[in-house]
Design a protein that fits this description.
Largest sheet: 2 strands, antiparallel
Strand order of the largest sheet: 1-2
Strand content: 5-15%
Order of helices and strands: HEEHHEEHH
Shape: elongated
Oligomer: single chain
Radius of gyration: 25 Å
Distance between the termini: 64 Å
Number of strands: 4
Number of helices: 5
Structural class: mainly alpha
Amino acid sequence: MTLPLTLDRARTLGVSRYYTGKTCVRGHACDRLTANRTCVECNREDVLKRNNARYTSNQAFAEETKARQYNARAQKFGCEGVLEGNDLRLVRRRQNDLCVCSREPITEFDHKIALFKQGPNKLFNLQGLGPMCAKEKFSADHREWHATVGYAR
């Protein structure tokens, strides 16, 4: 089905898009949404921008949630210490937001000595890891793991 050429025709037909053939103010030549007259590409860009802003503002919330999860696991294993979301931000700052060995951006936090091995749930036992390192380390002791990846500290 070809799209209607006008907004009025699209509303009459009850379709969600129409195509005028004209470029929008940002230079996109694509369909427009009947609901708000916005071009589909501009709408997509705006949604991405909103989601990115939401992610940035929610990063603190995510770190608080992660700290609560660590605290619950530490309590389960009988480990000492309590973390706060601010502690995870301090780890980011301490490592310049980069993984300790691969220098990739931090995507995960991990205990140097795993909680199930009775490692303390404290700031000095936390490290930020990039995506590859987080998968590789899993539950290894940090000294063993650093030796396997060739990172001595």
